[in-house]
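Supplementary Methods. Inverse-folding protocol.

Structures were first reduced to a discrete structure-token string of length 130. This string, shown here, constituted the complete conditioning input.
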């Protein structure tokens, strides 16, 4: 999800380089180094601050992007800003035990429903596009 918001993070490629290097190559296991931790923390901090994270504008539509993996729903709520979409909130929630037993396509639907409900708190019931 961080890569989705890369246009709002200055020098994202440089910040993420240690993480890219750790996840590419012939190795089957990730070697988590101090440099990886520093890069992860820097990206996390950048994503939670301006200009990466904007304030919601109730006059514009909201877009919710959702990803489900290993029983965790992750999402980013965005709004148009010029030709791009700017994040206004990030969500992450574990699926309930019932949903965990479903096939992947239904887990994705459950993840979308769960995060749409969370996003409604911020959008105050305004139109939400997924």
């Amino acid at each position: 999800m961080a890569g989705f918001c890369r246009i709002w993070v200055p020098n994202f490629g440089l910040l993420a380089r240690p993480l890219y290097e750790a996840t590419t190559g012939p190795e089957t296991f990730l070697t988590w180094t101090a440099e990886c931790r520093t890069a992860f923390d820097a990206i996390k901090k950048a994503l939670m601050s301006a200009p990466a994270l904007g304030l919601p504008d109730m006059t514009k539509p909201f877009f919710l992007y959702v990803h489900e993996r290993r029983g965790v729903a992750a999402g980013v709520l965005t709004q148009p800003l010029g030709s791009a979409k700017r994040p206004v909130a990030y969500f992450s929630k574990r699926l309930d035990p019932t949903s965990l037993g479903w096939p992947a396509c239904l887990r994705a639907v459950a993840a979308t429903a769960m995060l749409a409900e969370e996003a409604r708190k911020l959008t105050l019931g305004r139109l939400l596009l997924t």
